[in-house]
């Protein structure tokens, strides 16, 4: 019997690779000889995307970049052949802010630094995972790192951040090397408006109501110059507008993050011969149903007629919701340990024990 273990991370406690290892160990405890486990950690374009690519055989390349405040950070991308995987959160993530959020001035320049390094290394296909950003700068910072110039009416370059875009008078975009960019994201928001980058995600990045209004005005002005026809496209508001800049000025194409990553990681090949797929993430909830990794894995498994179960830290979905997502059963750490704090701290051993239940339920005959 072959089991494909394809989980996302348990955020705050285990990486996707650590989840896969704990599940594999739990299966081996119960059926040491009868079950062959293939581990394929996955991601949906957010944090953990580089780790998933490396686990699938890509090489990690570390590069200097600017963080969301402009301070230097060390970021990385993953490479195999002429394909690179870039994760926005590596250089422009909210977790990289050294202090309080800076919603008006945070920049995506570091993501551009990483893209530039991958292009210079000869990559001609780039998968850009956009999630977890600290900025709402419409992707302007990313473009400046690739050589663009954003000028005010006096010909001066604008400072970093979304708020400054309200003063934009002209945009000079250099000719870039031929490169195919695919955006991996589960966000379908437009750039601006009540469902846009500032209104929906600005408060999560520390924006006050006044900041949201300023960013909204700035993004509208930015779009009027950079490409108004792209502002309403699904995903234009992803990562504070990085989706917009990538589509409007870099010719990028948007795809659902988990769908794109499963293709990239070789999910179909790994699934061959499997009798069960085990996926999971830290919390199975309503967000899971909106394009997160476990739902994507279950959907891909169902297309091949392979049943799928999920493990998690906690599960807030009903049996009906799970079934509709293609997940036949869900197992949560809170089934073993009701204290969420202990579940976070002791996630690996608890998950190993929890997988015993999976093995007994599905391979007891």
Walkthrough of the structure:
It is a single chain. By secondary structure, this protein is of the alpha/beta class. The protein has two domains: 2-40 and 280-363, Rossmann fold, CATH 3.40.50; 49-258, Glycerate kinase, domain 2 (Alpha-Beta Complex). It has helices at 16-30, 49-55, 89-92, 109-120, 140-145, 197-201, 209-226, 242-250, 257-265, 267-271, 293-303, 319-324, 340-345, 347-363; strands spanning 2-5, 36-39, 59-66, 72-80, 83-87, 125-129, 149-151, 170-172, 180-185, 253-256, 276-284, 308-315, 329-332. The chain has a six-stranded mixed sheet, sandwiched between helices. Strand 3 and strand 4 (72-80) form a beta hairpin. Helix 1 packs across helix 14 and helix 9 packs across helix 11 (293-303). The radius of gyration is 21 Å and the shape is elongated. It starts with a strand and ends with a helix. The model has no long low-confidence stretch (mean pLDDT 95).
Q: What topology emerges from the helices and strands here?
A:
Blueprint: E1 2-5, H1 16-30, E2 36-39, H2 49-55, E3 59-66, E4 72-80, E5 83-87, H3 89-92, H4 109-120, E6 125-129, H5 140-145, E7 149-151, E8 170-172, E9 180-185, H6 197-201, H7 209-226, H8 242-250, E10 253-256, H9 257-265, H10 267-271, E11 276-284, H11 293-303, E12 308-315, H12 319-324, E13 329-332, H13 340-345, H14 347-363
Parallel strand pairs: 1-2, 1-11, 5-6, 6-9, 9-10, 11-12, 12-13
Antiparallel strand pairs: 3-4, 4-5, 7-8
Helix pairs in contact: 1-14, 9-11
């Amino acid at each position: 019997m072959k089991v494909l273990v394809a989980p996302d991370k348990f955020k705050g406690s285990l990486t996707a690779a650590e989840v896969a290892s704990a599940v594999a160990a739990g299966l081996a405890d119960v059926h040491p000889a009868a079950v062959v486990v293939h581990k394929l950690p996955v991601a949906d374009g957010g944090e953990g995307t580089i780790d998933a690519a490396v686990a699938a055989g890509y090489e990690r390349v570390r590069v200097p970049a600017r963080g969301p405040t402009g301070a230097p950070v060390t970021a990385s991308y993953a490479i195999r052949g002429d394909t690179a995987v870039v994760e926005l959160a590596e250089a422009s993530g909210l977790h990289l802010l050294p202090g309080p959020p800076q919603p008006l001035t945070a920049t995506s320049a570091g993501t551009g630094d990483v893209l530039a390094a991958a292009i210079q290394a000869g990559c001609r296909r780039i998968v850009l995972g956009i999630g977890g950003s600290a900025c709402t700068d419409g992707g302007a910072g990313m473009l400046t790192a690739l050589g663009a110039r954003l000028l005010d009416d006096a010909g001066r370059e604008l400072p970093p951040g979304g708020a400054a875009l309200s003063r934009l008078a002209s945009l000079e975009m250099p000719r870039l090397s031929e490169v195919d960019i695919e955006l991996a994201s589960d966000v379908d928001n437009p750039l601006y408006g009540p469902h846009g980058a500032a209104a929906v995600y600005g408060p999560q990045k520390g924006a006050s109501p006044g900041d949201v209004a300023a960013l909204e005005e700035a993004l509208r002005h930015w779009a009027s110059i950079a490409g108004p026809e792209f502002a309403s496209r699904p995903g234009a508001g992803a990562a504070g507008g990085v989706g917009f800049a990538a589509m409007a000025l870099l010719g990028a194409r948007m795809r659902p993050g988990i769908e794109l990553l499963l293709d990239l990681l070789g999910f179909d090949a790994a699934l061959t011969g499997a009798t069960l797929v085990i996926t999971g993430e830290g919390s199975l909830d309503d967000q899971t149903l909106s394009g997160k990794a476990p739902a994507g894995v279950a959907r891909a498994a169902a297309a091949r007629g392979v049943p799928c179960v999920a493990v998690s830290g906690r599960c807030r979905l009903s049996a009906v919701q799970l079934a509709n997502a293609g997940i036949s059963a869900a197992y949560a750490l809170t089934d073993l340990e009701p204290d969420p704090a202990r579940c976070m701290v002791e996630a690996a051993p608890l998950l190993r024990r929890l997988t015993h239940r999976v093995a007994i339920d599905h391979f007891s005959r």
